[in-house]
Amino acid sequence: MSRAEAGAEPRPAGPATLRLLGSELGILFRRWRTWAMFGALAAVPVLIGLAVRFSGRPPSGRGPAFLNQVTENGLFVGVVALVVCTPLFLPLTVSVVSGDTIAGEASLGTLRYLLVAPAGRVRLLAVKYASTALFCVAAPLAVVLGGTATGLVLFPLGQATLLSGAVIGPGEAFGRLLLMAGYSAVSLLGLAAIGLFASTLTGVPVGAMAATAVLAVVSQILGALDQLEWLHPWLFTHHWLGLADFLREPVAWDSLGQNALLQAGYAAFFAALAYGRFTTKDILA
Amino acid sequence: MRGWRRWIPAAAVPAAIAVGLLAGGASAVVAPPPPATPEQVLALVAGNATRTDARQFSGTLEQRTDLGLPAIPAQTLGPGSGGPATGPEAAVLELLTVPHTARVYADGPEHVRVQVIDQLAERDLVRNGRDVWTYDSKANAVMHAVLPDRTLSHGSPGATAPAAPTASPDDLARRLLAAADPSTEVTLGAPVVVAGRSAYALVLTPRTAGTLVDRVQIAVDAASGMPLAVDVYAKGQAVAAFHAGFTSLSFGAPDPALFTLVPPPGATVTEKQIPADAVPPHAGTSPGDHPTPDVGHAPGWDAIAVIPADRVPPDVLASPLVQQLAVPAARGRLLSSSLVNILLADDGRVLVGAVPASALEAAAAR
């Protein structure tokens, strides 16, 4: 058990934490389930690309945003896929990973071994959140890279028309696509913290995953109700579709800043809650 | 057990956020210098209007309304949803009921770009000298028009200057000030902070009781004299019925490349002819059009505009949306809001005014 060994290392905090993080990442990214999720995410742009390629030109203004751009520039397959994945698929995968963090160990009975070291609980939480955050970066990247590959195979690599009507070349378009993936990653950090907290509440990982995914959906439903307009800026899903701001000329950076602040607030609050819960909890498993 | 101490961070984080918010809200904004009579503030505005260097800015504009109407996004209108197919009435209704954010870039009145920021979409309006373009990203459609010469050679940039076709507080304020005749009491309210800048608050109060307008408040930047925000309050309503104002603003010439628009590949381009004697296109169908264009030109606050039956576009009346919103009234059907009432009279005329419905009905009877 590499994990148990890493957790059992004595004090010297830095290297031990790094080793724990390394083993945690190794476990996460070697997991069959993680790669299945990456595969599913990357399959979304493939499906979109095939559908557009073999059904002819989509009517302008119908379907997901930017779909009518796909035939002119293959890179837009990635944009469409990212927009399509933002409301459900991406939060779902992050819910699975973050909900599994603590509850998964508890259900496997490995949590006790991880916590042998005295400073173990805080460090374990930090390491678990860090590895989930890395997954938040990787998941939108999977969508974008899947989209780029699909687009390059099925469509020409032409000029990209921005929302403002300006036209940019493929190189800059790819750069903006990566920025959008980064924006998505930032968007998911708050949800990852919520999942971490949910995971400390229960020993049943599926429960934590479901609760986190449901929260993401509920938040988006609240965001669609006009009567709750005062609440909207406080919802962690409020800026999720702001990723289109990278397709304006000039780029609207302020939504990225607001989003980052909001997600940092959510991350801090739910990480603190997770700390409160996890450090006072009796670990029986 | 010291268990409760572990929960301190969880309580501290919201507390820290609240403190941060309060501190941010109360952050040091210098109070405007004392010269505070309405005349001086008006002069400040006029001074700003004639100085070209003060008209170079980039900013973010927010517009929202609280007219007591349900929100009607353009997408929900009509079967051919989206795009310009839904026609001007949809665009106007959308502007009236849904809040908007727009980025505004200006280098004098002749180089202007307005970007209405929609979710996953954008509508642009560009003016570069006599050329005017609009771009709608959802429909990928470009409209191009050339303004008649007259609008360029206009001497006074005062009340009748060609206005940028948007609810820029700048233009709206100047129209309102031009109308400040004996019908209006102009006073100065407590200074306000708009877009992080301290501003004088000009308050225009109608002298007549026959209007739905309670007061109009214009925030004028203390440093530059530029109008930063306009709020129109309806009688008996605490929240502004109409608000347009900057949320951020910086002075200086924007990138000149912003003032050109080359139709992107695949876009449908329509050329619009504007006859030399026509009004500049801000009375028309452009998405950035502001909804109260006539306030400044009205002879009084309780004026009623009567559109003869043969000038009323038939498709507006037939639109299911209008049918649905209009309620039966004494002499026709009434579209009612907290600020403006519209009477679709039985004889086909349309009466519009910032007046109570009874006044419209009385006017229809005449």
Account of the protein in words:
The complex is a heterodimer of chains A (285) and B (366). With 285 residues, chain A is mainly alpha-helical. Chain A has one domain. Chain A is 69% helix and 1% strand. A two-stranded antiparallel sheet of chain A has the order 1-2. In chain A, β1 and β2 form a beta hairpin. In chain A, α5 (89-108) runs antiparallel to α7. Chain A is globular and about 60 Å long. By secondary structure, chain B is of the alpha+beta class. Chain B contains seven helices and 17 strands. Chain B has a twelve-stranded mixed beta sheet.
List keywords for this structure.
heterodimer; A: 285 residues; mainly alpha; two-stranded antiparallel sheet; 2 strands; disordered N terminus; B: 366 residues; alpha+beta; outer membrane lipoprotein receptor (LolB), chain A; 2 domains; twelve-stranded mixed sheet; five-stranded antiparallel sheet; 7 helices; globular
Series of H and E elements of chain A: HHHHHHHEEHHH
Tell me the number of structural domains of chain A.
1
What is the mean pLDDT of chain A?
88
Strand order, sheet with most strands of chain B: 7-8-9-10-11-1-2-3-4-5-6-12
The amount of beta strand of chain A, in percent, is under 5%
State the secondary-structure class of chain A. Answer: mainly alpha
Largest sheet of chain B: 12 strands, mixed
Count of DSSP strands of chain A: 2
| Overall pLDDT of chain B | 76
Shape descriptor of chain A reads globular
Total of helices of chain B: 7
Q: What's the quaternary structure here?
A: heterodimer
| SSE ordering of chain B | HHEHEEEEEHEEEEEEEHHEEEEH
Give a quick account of the main beta sheet of chain A: strands, pairing sense, barrel closure: 2 strands, antiparallel
Relative helix content of chain B: 10-25%
Q: In percent terms, what proportion of residues of chain B is strand? A: 25-35%
The pair of chains with the biggest contact is: A-B, 34 and 38 residues
Overall SS class of chain B: alpha+beta
CATH class membership of the largest domain in chain B: Mainly Beta
Quote the distance from N terminus to C terminus of chain B: 84 Å
